[in-house]
Amino acid sequence: DQDVKVYKVHSPFTRPPPPPAQPPQPPSSAKFVSYEAELRCSPGLATCPSCRTRVTTEVTFKAGTFAWLMCLVFVLVLGCCLIPFFVNHFKDAYHSCPRCRRVLHVHKKRCCE
Description:
Shape: rod-shaped
Strand order of the largest sheet: 1-2-3
Order of helices and strands: EEEEHHEE
Radius of gyration: 22 Å
Distance between the termini: 70 Å
Helix content: 10-25%
Number of strands: 6
Number of helices: 2
């Protein structure tokens, strides 16, 4: 007989209700990752599109174009070409999700950095 309003409070420990159904959209080839700050050579906060979780990325380094270019420069100048392959400063930084291991971002090393 009374008008009673019911409020649902969600704490950080409870799951929010599912979002309302949306009409299907055509599949997109690009998936977007949201970053808290620009991801460079150190771990950063990002939201993984695969597992939909906010994570601190794991960073692994792999030799890319810049490392090979520096290898050539070191051969011409110093006669030693292996330095860029042992120093992370010359390598590309691969940011991945620690939960699902998906690569979220690749920070390519450039000459101007």
